[in-house]
Amino acid sequence: MRKLIVWATAALSALTVVQAYAQSPALDRIKNSGVLRVGVKTDYKPFGYLDPKGAVVGLEPDLAADLAQKLKVKLELVPVQTANRIEFLQQGRIDLMIATMSVNDQRRKVVGVIEPFYYAGGTSLLARKSAGIKTWEDVRGKDICGTQGAYYNRAVAQKYGANIVAFPGNVEALNALLTGSCVGFVQDSTLLASIISSGEAKWNDYTTPLPVQDLQPWAIAVPIGELNTAYGDFVRKTVTQWHASGYLIEEEKKWGLKPTEFLKENQTKLAAGK
């Protein structure tokens, strides 16, 4: 009952935000068309991918659906890739983007970065369950697969003394891990979560045993001119409510992701109104 009240209050509050501020061009278009167009990934399970029937599903499509429901409009999911997601937003082909976008100064110059952030990824390690790796110190002196140019490599090598064996891409590095050339593969925690949740039998004996380090936050993005309008404020308020109500933690669990301190800390902080 308490959870129902929280959700009802959140929905009413989000709708009130939209009504209370001056209309924005984005909100005018969304309301007039009755459709919210959201750019999402379709190749990054469980955040956004195609199910066996070809439907776009995942944690991020769920977030998009909740935004559309609060606006009382239909949802159109538009497949995007890392290479074109910002371009789609700038060209007006989508109204917002929820597509595993990490935040940096350059991106803040071209899109409206919504805070609070809704998720975060960082440095993680994929290893065979029998490898006996329980702490980051356990990689000292061991061969660890990596991809050339990844920032994770230097940090793990310098801080923990791992011997990084760098490969041109993820496919080569993962094949080396499977053949025993390395005892682990260092990469972004969300990519490794995607591998573990893929359901492929070859990964059944593998796990991500270590705490994630060097978190890089992910943000929803709106057109840069909409960041400080009623539309941007609506999205900002909604993400805050997702954290405060525990909705993002529920989504994390629903899609088989390991609990993250990032969501726990934000839920505690924002539920207390800090």
Automatic annotation (TrEMBL):
Keywords: Plasmid, Signal, Transport. The keyword Transport applies. SMART domains: PBPb. InterPro entries: Bact_solute-bind_prot3, Solute-binding_3/MltF_N. It holds the Pfam family SBP_bac_3. The keyword Signal applies. CDD domains: PBP2_polar_AA (cd13693). Coiled coil: none annotated. SUPFAM superfamilies: Periplasmic binding protein-like II. One of its GO terms (cellular component) is extracellular region. GO terms for biological process: amino acid transport. Gene3D superfamilies: Periplasmic binding protein-like II. Residues 1-22 form the signal peptide. Residues 35-259 form the Solute-binding protein family 3/N-terminal domain. PANTHER family: ABC TRANSPORTER GLUTAMINE-BINDING PROTEIN GLNH, AMINO ACID ABC TRANSPORTER PERMEASE. Belongs to the bacterial solute-binding protein 3 family. This is Transporter substrate-binding domain-containing protein. It comes from Cupriavidus metallidurans.
